[in-house]
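Ticket #535: bound-state structure for glutamine.
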Amino acid sequence: MNTKFIFISGGVASSLGKGIIASSLAKLLQARGLRVTIQKFDPYINIDPGTLNPYEHGECYVTEDGAETDLDLGHYERFLGVHTSQANNVTTGRIYHTVITREREGAYLGKTVQIVPHITDEIKRRMLLLGQTGDYDVILTEIGGTVGDMESQPFVEAVRQLQWELPEEDCMTIHLTLIPYLHAAQELKTKPTQHSVQMLQKAGVKPDVIVCRTEHPLSEDLRRKIALFCNVRPGHVIQSIDAWSIYQVPLNMHEEHLDELAVRKLQIENFNEPNLGRWKEFLQRLAHPSHEVQITLVGKYVELQDAYKSIQEAFVHAGAAYECKVHVKTLQSEHINADNVAELLSGADGILVAPGFGERGLEGKIHAVRYAREKGIPFLGICLGMQMCVVEFARNVLGWKDAVSTEVNTQTKHPVIDMMEDQKKTTIKGGTMRLGAYACQLEAGSLVASLYGTTEISERHRHRYEFNSKYLEDFTKAGLKASGRNPQTGLVEVVELPGHPFFIGVQFHPEYKSTPENPHPLFKGLVKAALDNKK
Ligand code: GLN
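RESOLUTION: The complex was predicted; output attached.
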């Protein structure tokens, strides 16, 4: 069987959840026994989202191979349980960068380099690239942005060309739109969808299926009307009604026959019912919790829901494992000081100090760490959160009042968190951190080793600064244990506090690897400890 390609565009409004629809369809096809991956094409000029402030597009998701990618790749991995890579996220910036570099090399032999065909050729090459690995039966491609935007036009044009270049049975297009409900008229409105599909068709792309986001069920009449005006078959207009959890969406899409439409259009001889046993078990536990805990997430990007997406989702997975509803309360670290910390954290059964960059909110994070350490509250610090554990311990236990990370003060006498040697030479920002998966050796008998159930792990990184090994002995003597080290470099990756019910700081990002079917041991550990603490 040839590799099959499914393209998913969006119209009417942004934030309709294209990533969730793509992930849900991919999940259903995977559950039918097909090998599936998803990729995202983003229309912005940044080479990757690594240099973007989380307030812009939410969290930056990091893959095994160290690519800094759009947060939708997190959904892809969580739904499918398979790794993505650099090839799964392409931006306009990366496309242009490749074409312009080739132009400078003289590769175009004096030709005028143009959007069509040179940019669109490069887009198409990348759209088909994962197909050449032979690893996938179906590749879903999410086109970022909204159809009609100037910046996504080259992507839509590339899809138009591929619709003719690929065999008809190897290519499918899905358009996701919004059907708004007008309260005053008490009516669902189809006009924005009609206009959006017209725009897509004007660009030469004919959708095979229209998925309609809606707050209310679509009647048969309404579906027929959309089909009639939008040039698709009746039966190919399906609803995506607001769901109680994003993880319910695959089941909703199956009820709407989206996977069946896909295998029929793509002539995939596959009549298996999707096997979603474990997924449904997870949903059962998620829907019927018998306990609840509050975890306070201390961070500086808390105003934007998506800034800590993977952490939030990891709590959903870990909570379900214990039939426990985890209420994640976000707390702006800038607002925390020595006087209000106890009050602000009073309801917390557990505390997580989040990753981050720069000085803003740093002191508040240190107050939160101290509170968790001294009051015996279950605690997990991630990346910057781990670094602040080290700083807090240095200041308040070792008595080094000026201890800090050289990220914010290079003049300190106690640079307990310092830049790695090979980072010091780097002056450019994009793609220059320690990125992606690194091995970590856990100390036998430590809390982390017992949580993971092994001493050899691999986790993903995204940082410039490290625990300064010069001070390792001082920390160890004073009681902060380095229970995870990089086996090659000896760098400290995990610290923990024996004697405390649950106090762990990790230099890596466990949240990227948590999935509904495999909740992450550290998040499970924190939720379990928070439950015990509550009792
Ligand atoms: N700013 C810190 C560093 O670069 C931590 C990064 C993070 O939390 N992802 O090392």
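RESOLUTION NOTES: Residues 355-357, 383-384, 407, 462-465 surround glutamine (CB under 6 Å).
TICKET STATUS: resolved
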